[in-house]
Amino acid sequence: MAKGPYSEKVMDHFMNPRNMGEIEDANGIGEVGNPACGDVMKIFLKINDDMIVEDVKFKTFGCGAAIASSSMATELMIGKSVEELLQLTNDAIVEALGGLPPAKIHCSVMAEEAIEEALKDYYKSKGEDPSVVDDMKAKVKKDN
Ligand code: FES
């Protein structure tokens, strides 16, 4: 058992974040901030012609839980389709991390929102209407 409120997985991803950095030729970039805590998260996506995530990186200026959430999110995103990305909720991220304290759930919500923003940017970069992301997201929420 890990000491303190954080699971060993959270501590591991905080101390050794995976996929931290930027992607120069990203075709989807999402940035979100939480005005309450002042933390900012940025996700870079490289999506290939088959609409599969080939590469993903993140930059998070934020608390340990936000860094761990973004790191875990990137691990869950690689190799996934755009559709699968939309099904990646903050609950799934929290579960993969072995839990987060209640006061830190919003940190994982930021990761879900950053993915959404990055996907909207991806559609924009293709010259398509980014609101399809909202529509698909609403459908996922309804189906669950
Ligand atoms: Fe705000 Fe963690 S405290 S993202």
Strand content: 15-25%
Write the H/E string, N to C: HEEEHHHHH
Q: Under the CATH scheme, which class?
A: Alpha Beta
How many strand elements? 3
Second CATH tier, the architecture: Alpha-Beta Complex
Question: Any idea what the radius of gyration is?
Answer: 15 Å
Helix content: 40-55%
Whole-number mean pLDDT = 95
> Can you tell me the number of structural domains?
1
Briefly note the CATH topology name. Answer: Sufe protein. Chain: A
Number of helices: 6
Unreliable stretches: none
GO molecular function: iron ion binding; iron-sulfur cluster binding
Protein name: FeS cluster assembly scaffold protein NifU
Pfam family, one: NifU_N
Organism: Denitrovibrio acetiphilus (strain DSM 12809 / NBRC 114555 / N2460)
Describe this structure in words.
The chain is of the alpha+beta class. The chain has a single domain (8-143), classed as Sufe protein. Chain: A (Alpha-Beta Complex), CATH 3.90.1010. It contains six helices and three strands, in the order αβββααααα. It has helices at residues 8-15, 64-77, 82-86, 90-96, 105-125, 131-143; strands at residues 28-33, 40-47, 53-61. Strands 1-2-3 form a three-stranded antiparallel sheet. A hairpin with a 6-residue loop joins β1 (28-33) and β2 (40-47). α2 crosses α5 (105-125) and α4 packs across α5. The longest helix has 21 residues, at 105-125. The chain is globular, with a radius of gyration of 15 Å. The model has no long low-confidence stretch (mean pLDDT 95). The site of FE2/S2 (inorganic) cluster has 11 residues, from α2 and α5. One of its GO terms (molecular function) is iron-sulfur cluster binding. Pfam families: NifU_N. Residues 6-126 form the NIF system FeS cluster assembly NifU N-terminal domain. InterPro entries: NIF_FeS_clus_asmbl_NifU-like (IPR017787), NIF_FeS_clus_asmbl_NifU_N (IPR002871).
